Amino acid sequence: MRKKIITKLAPPPAGSYSQGISVGNRIYVAGQTPVNVETGEVPKTIEEQTRQVLRNVKHVLEAANASMEDIVKVTTYLTNLEDFEGYNNVYKEFFSEQLAVRTTIGCELKDIPLEIDVIAEID
């Protein structure tokens, strides 16, 4: 059974999609951006932006009674691949030794420096 995941702690969808969907034990989190919902601002540095995106991912997961530890797949879209090192250093702050599989893609995004979507599996 599909269940829509909604939280006011992460940015609302900017288009025709859900913040997240759970299907059985699997949770799909839509691409999250570095928008801080309290301020509406995007932080300045890639490190701050990455932290904000991952906080947004965490909030969507928590709305589905899951955590960052449940993530099995991460896809990251970076507008500037020269930001990879800063992004990767912060990424490590949010994940334990049992790392998810990950794909990082360089691409053009409209007015955002990075976007991250995840798939999580809960017991």
Keywords, please?
60s Ribosomal Protein L30, Chain: A; single chain; 6 strands; alpha+beta; 30% strand; 123 residues; 6-stranded mixed β-sheet
Radius of gyration: 14 Å
CATH architecture: 2-Layer Sandwich
Q: Could you list the spans in which at least 5 consecutive residues all have pLDDT below 50?
A: none
Number of strands: 6
Shape: globular
Distance between the termini: 16 Å
**Broad structural category:** alpha+beta
Walk across the major sheet and give the strand order: 1-2-3-6-4-5
Largest sheet: 6 strands, mixed
What's the mean pLDDT score?
95
CATH class: Alpha Beta
Question: What percentage of the residues does DSSP assign to strands (E)?
Answer: 25-35%
| Count of helical stretches | 2
The CATH homologous superfamily: RutC-like
Approximately how much helix is present in the residues?
10-25%
User: Number of folding domains?
Assistant: 1
